[in-house]
Amino acid sequence: MTTSSSETLSPVEAHRAAVSPEADLERCPLMPNYGPPAVQFVRGEGPYLWDSHGEVYLDFLSGLAVTSLGHSHPAVAAAVAEQAHRLLHVSNLYATEHNGVVATMLDQAVGDGTPAGGQVFFCNSGAEANEAAIKLARRAGGHGRHVVVCAFQSFHGRTLATLAATGQPQKWEAFQPLPEGFRHVVWNDLEELERSLDDTVAAVLLEPVQGEGGVNPATVEYFQGVERLCRERDILFMVDEVQTGLARTGRWFGFQHFDVSPDVVTMAKALGNGVPIGACWAKAEVAAAFSRGDHATTYGGQPLATAAARAVLSTMKAIDAPRRARETGAALAEALRKLPKVADCRGLGLLLAVELDGVEAGPVAAECLKNGLVVNAVTSSAIRLAPPLTIEESHVAEAVNKLAGCIESVAESVVAPSESG
Ligand SMILES: Cc1ncc(COP(=O)(O)O)c(C=O)c1O
Fold it and tell me: Could you tell me if 246 and 109 are in contact, meaning their C-beta atoms sit under 8 angstroms apart?
């Protein structure tokens, strides 16, 4: 590394330094757990981002399904600014203004417009929402009945318990021993799930669409079958809606596509449109398993985050965000399926993955970024798209054109050497 002192490192340089083979770790202020970033973003508005050199990008990733209303949404910005001037934090020892209102709004969303009869615990992230769900399941199950059954390829977070729930063994290895009490089954295979259920099982935890695992939707038969098995055996049916929740898939929650009624629903990401907030909703009779003092957080449900969530939920309702995700998602998927070198497009609403035909997804995502389109390679052969739910037809056309060009140029660059040789 050639930079002379930490003061002279820009965030991009610092991040690069952290992961470069010659990294001067003493001088680098950031831990090396993230890869080197290609750009530094300094501003966002609607579906557009600007980098530190003034280049503009169309954001079809939304900070990993977070900024569903687009960047710097005026209603969210106003709510956050107003709240910041009035009251930021007092702790959960005291009542604050928005959390009851937001909990009621979430309960209505879980009930698809009518009260679902649940209660909410607020926290700060998706992993924390799942931690709350796992602790609730253990509390409801009692000692000896603590196992949570999850699917392979699932993603539930990076804390130790949610990492153990995550069905990706390659992510476990470095951190053994993980907390015990998690069992994994093949995705969308009801018979295997049934075989995994014994009287140590407290809950089943599934995503309606596996987001990080490659955008793999559940089938209706699977979710309905899981619900039936859970009811027959008095096991909690818990749904991780951290990525799929809050209109992303074309319904308020992904499970609503399958006409099931889970006992516990976790969410985060889009709830604050970028302000960190997570929530664990549970049917009131399930939530009753928690006694006073069983679970807590310093920041969860504090006024700044709940002010943002209140503005997000009001805006989503006003613009009928689920319908927008459904309609725009259908148009986007149809356009993507027609592209050369696209084998398939899967997903629900505006959570989509484009399966490439013989082209590596990593280089395509990098080429997209160079050409002003933000997407990510969710597997080695698939590009994930999770644009803001507020995008218009013109943004769909712009993204599809850019993606088509980038797929083509990567495909050509791979073919070129063997043709010329
Ligand atoms: C389905 C799902 N659950 C949990 C998480 C973890 O959320 P967080 O990163 O906010 O802890 C994620 C993050 O991508 C997710 O997609």
Answer: yes
β-pairing, 201-206 vs 147-151, is parallel
**402 classed as catalytic:** no
The domain made up of 74-318 has a fold known as: Aspartate Aminotransferase; domain 2 (3.40.640)
Q: Which atom of ligand 1 is nearest to the CA of 125?
A: 10
pLDDT single digits (tens) 54-108: 999 999 999 999 999 999 999 999 999 999 999 999 999 999 999 999 999 999 9
Q: What is the pTM of this model?
A: 0.94
Express each pLDDT in 177-218 by its tens digit.
Answer: 999 999 999 999 999 999 999 999 999 999 999 999 999 999
Q: What are the extents of the domains in the chain?
A: 1-28, 38-67+321-420, 74-318
**pLDDT tens, residue by residue, 374-393:** 999 999 999 999 999 999 99
- Torsion sign, CA atoms 317, 319, 320, 322: negative
Q: Is 41 a catalytic residue?
A: no
- C-alpha radius of gyration, the chain, whole number: 22
CATH number of 38-67+321-420: 3.90.1150.10
What separation in Å is there between the alpha carbon of 84 and the centre of ligand 1?
26
**Which residues, listed in sequence order, are joined to residue 57 by a DSSP beta bridge?**
49
Is 207 within 8 Å of 243 (Cβ atoms)? yes
